[in-house]
Amino acid sequence: MGQLSTHVLDLMNGCPAAGMEVMLQRVDGPQPVTLQSFRLNADGRNDGGPLLDAQSMAAGRYRLLFKVAAYFRARGAVLPEPAFIDEVPLDFGIADPAARYHVPLLVSPWAYSTYRGS
Q1: Cβ contact 102:6 at 8 Å
Q2: Where are the domains of the chain?
Q3: Percent of the chain clearing pLDDT 70 (strictly above)
Q4: What is the DSSP string of 11-46?
Q5: Per-residue pLDDT tens for 24-51?
Q6: pLDDT tens across 49-101, in order?
Q7: What are the CA-CA distances from residue 31 to residues 15, 18, 59, 109 (Å)?
Q8: For residues 115 and 30, what is the distance between their CA atoms, to the nearest angstrom?
Q9: What is the CATH number of domain 3-109?
Q10: Cα–Cα distance between 17 and 11 in angstroms, integer?
Q11: How far, in Å, CA of 52 to CA of 71, rounded?
């Protein structure tokens, strides 16, 4: 019962990153293929549930692309141009399509951190 999910927390404001734009891409060759684009809900998650469900999970390389600067600017943060962190491309691999992969992002305009969640 494999699936892929994400969750983003805004460390500057101490809340979920509601409204942040995110893209899920498959990285198979020289150009990544966008599988979906979405905005995070009030809880900092995808409204549509898992990004990949058991039927669409496949081993391979993937990227979550988080539009960080646009999110913080929309929240009223004054950022330099160009922003220190504009987008966060988070590349990861799915080795076992039957496993659950949760990819959280903790982010501010100046730093970010991630890990494989549960």
Answers
A1: yes
A2: 3-109
A3: 100
A4: TTTTEE-TT-EEEEEE--SSS-EEEEEEEB-TTSSB
A5: 999 988 899 999 999 999 999 999 999 9
A6: 999 999 999 999 999 999 999 999 999 999 999 999 999 999 999 999 999 99
A7: 33, 28, 18, 27
A8: 26
A9: 2.60.40.180
A10: 9
A11: 24
Q: Report how far residue 10's alpha carbon sits from residue 65's, in angstroms, rounded to the nearest whole number.
A: 16
102: β partners = 5, 117
Give this prediction's pTM: 0.96
At 66, which amino acid appears? F
Q: What are the tokens at 87?
A: 């987008």
Determine how β-strand 100-107 pairs with β-strand 3-10. parallel
Distance CA(46)–CA(32), nearest Å, equals: 21
Q: CA 75: distance to chain centroid?
A: 18
Could you give the 3-state DSSP secondary structure of residue 7?
strand
Nearest CA among 73, 66, 68 for reference residue 85: 68
* Residue 14: both structure tokens together: 């101490």
Type of residue at 3? Q
pLDDT at 49: 92
